[in-house]
Amino acid sequence: MQKKVFQLLVNNTSGVLSRISGLFARRGYNVESITAGVTSDPRITRITIVASGDDEILEQIEKQVAKLEDVRNIKELKPEKSVYRELIMVKVRATAEQRQGVISVADIFRAKIIDIAPESLMIELTGNQQKIDAFIGLLEGYEILELARTGIAGLGRGTEPVVRLD
């Protein structure tokens, strides 16, 4: 099993994300993460999908998604030619005695403390998947109350991979 990151530019229409995710569900394709947001052109949405499978399945995914009506462009974001980021928000139980330890771990990763309550801290961190996973690993000595991850967002490096839609 391999992972590939696909970047889609789609028409910003009602139900487009549902139609794309429906294709994955109908065909039994595995989605590791999916993120979507409007681009600088409000008519276009950028969707980043991380899918896993063998070479044949991943090739099939690209072909099937490209056939969808609202898909204007699809390309693979190769790791060596792209930048990926993910956002995590994590709420950690922390007594007054534990608080400084959690803050120290957050500081090492350049994370932000975004909320403090009497018995917990909420932390925000942005980075690649390895950084996020390493951060979570260092929090194992603490009780994680809630955790939310956005999934990967990515862009190709430089100006050559930029796609202009008219």
Number of separate structural domains: 2
Order of helices and strands: EHEEHEEHEEHEE
CATH topology of the largest domain: Alpha-Beta Plaits
Q: Give me the Rg, rounded.
A: 19 Å
- Please name the CATH architecture of the largest domain: 2-Layer Sandwich
Assign an overall shape: elongated
Secondary structure: helix percent: 25-40%
Q: Terminal Cα separation, in Å?
A: 37 Å
How large is the share of residues in beta strands? 35-45%
The CATH homologous superfamily name of the largest domain equals ACT domain
Low-confidence stretches: none
Report the structural category: alpha+beta
Task: Please describe the topology of this protein.
Elements: E1 2-11, H1 16-27, E2 30-38, E3 44-53, H2 55-66, E4 71-76, E5 82-93, H3 96-108, E6 112-117, E7 120-127, H4 129-138, E8 144-149, E9 153-156
How would you explain this protein's 3D organization?
- By secondary structure, the protein is α+β, with helices and mostly antiparallel strands.
- The protein contains four helices and nine strands.
- The protein has helices at 16-27, 55-66, 96-108, 129-138; strands at 2-11, 30-38, 44-53, 71-76, 82-93, 112-117, 120-127, 144-149, 153-156.
- The strands form two sheets. Strands 5, 6, 7, 8 and 9 form a five-stranded antiparallel beta sheet that branches.
- The longest helix has 13 residues, at 96-108.
- The radius of gyration is 19 Å and the shape is elongated.
What's the gist of this structure?
This protein has 166 residues and is of the alpha+beta class.
Task: List the keywords.
166 residues, Alpha-Beta Plaits, 5-stranded antiparallel sheet, 4 helices
